[in-house]
Fold FkbM family methyltransferase.
Amino acid sequence: MSAPIPDLVYDIGLHRGLDTEFYLRKGFRVVAVEARPDFCADVTARFAAEVEAGRLTVVHAALAPRGGEVVSFFVNDVKDDWGSTERAWATKGGHEVTEITVPTVTLPELFDRHGVPRYLKCDIEGMDEECMRQLLADGRRPDFVSAEASSFDIFAYLRACGYDRAQLVNQAFHWATHPPQPPLEGNYAAASFTGHHSGLFGRELPWDRWSDFAEITGRWYDFVSLSRRDGLLAHGWLDVHACRAESLGG
C-alpha cells in the first residue's frame, strides 16, 4: 500500500484556486482537479511559475465513477461554486445552467499518476459521496481527508476507510479562523478565509474538536435537523474532516 507523500495535497474542486493558493503558500505541492476549463486556465496562468516548477498540477476533469469518458457538466453562472455533473444540484437555487461536456477521472487514477497525498480536500457539488466511495474501494489512505458533509454515507465511508477521528467545520465562520503560528502543517501562511475556502486542515484544526465518529455524526444529525426546522438558527454548511488518531501525534 502506497504511503502518503508528506508534502502533497489534493484540491478536488479547485474552483477559483483559493485553497490551492493557500496550500502552495504553505509549501505543499498541489494536484488540483476542476471540471470547468475556464477555471483551470485561469489558475494555470496565475500560478504559471508553480506549474513550471512542478509544484502545481491542474487536472481538467470531473471526478466520476469511470475515468476516460466524457460527461455533461452544468455550469451555474450565478453561483459559480454550484456547478455539478448533477443537474439538480447545479440548479438547486432556481438558477439557469449552461451544459458543457468535460472529461472524467477517478480517484484511483489520480493516485496512480500523482501519488497519495497527505491531505485530500474534496468539495465537488453532488459528488463528494462518490469520492469517498472510491477512496474506500481503493485501499490507499491519505493521512487527512475532508469533504462537504452532505450525506450520512460520507461519514460511513470515512469510518469504513479506517479513520477513527473526525470533526465538523462550519464553513460560514471561516472569517473568524486564523492559521496558527508556529504552523503545524507545512509553512506559516497568513490567510483571511472566506466561505469559498476550505480553511485549515490536519493538525492545524482545533485539537479539542476532534472526536469519535459516533459523537461527530450525532452533531451532524442535530445540525441537519435544526437546519430543516429553522435555517436561521442552524446557519452555514458543514465540512467533515477525518484522520486516524495516530496522525494527530501526541
